Amino acid sequence: MEELELATTDAPPRWDRVEVTLPVLGFLSLIGGQLPSYTTRADVYTICVGGAMLWLGLTGKVRRPLPGRLGPGTTWWLLPIGIFGVFEGSTFLLGSTPDFPTFSRLADPLLEDELLRSAGYFVWLTSFWALVRR
Questions:
Q1: CA distance 70 to 64
Q2: Where does the sequence pass through the membrane (predicted)?
Q3: How far apart are CA 58 and CA 61, in angstroms?
């Protein structure tokens, strides 16, 4: 019984990192959402934040162990992601026109609002952070 108590008190709680990470990512997304789209300031900010997250991931201090096998639902996630990638890549290479716009161009009217842009930036940051930790 005492060994079990020692093992549980030494391990940090799993949600400890989430309690710190989400407010930091939220703060960074609020800053990024205030910058106008497609400006040098926004591009530099995005590259700096993404580069810092990539650097943290490469140092290995924030990584989690990978699962041994992928689950059976992986195919159902990879299929729409693959279709999205092919569609976005082909429309980008052919030139985004009003007849065949990229998803980025379709999202432009939504991203004009600073609050929605901050929310989108938060989704991007949390998704990238999840990838960096893998």
A1: 15
A2: 44-62, 74-95, 115-132
A3: 8
How distant, in Å, are the alpha carbons of 83, 89, 92 from that of 97? 19, 13, 9
**Cα first-last separation, the chain:** 34
- The two structure tokens encoding residue 19: 């309690």
The gap from C-alpha 25 to its chain's centroid, in whole angstroms, comes to: 10
Cα–Cα distance measured from residue 41 to residue 30, given in angstroms and rounded to the nearest whole number: 14
Which of 105, 101, 127, 133 is closest to 25 using CA atoms?
127
Tell which residue, 56, 53, 47, 46, has the closest CA to residue 121: 46
Angle at which helices 114-132 and 16-34 cross, to 10°: 140
Output the pTM of the full model: 0.62
- Separation CA 122–CA 32 (nearest Å): 9
- pLDDT tens digits, residue range 59-94? 877 666 666 777 777 777 788 888 988 988 888 888
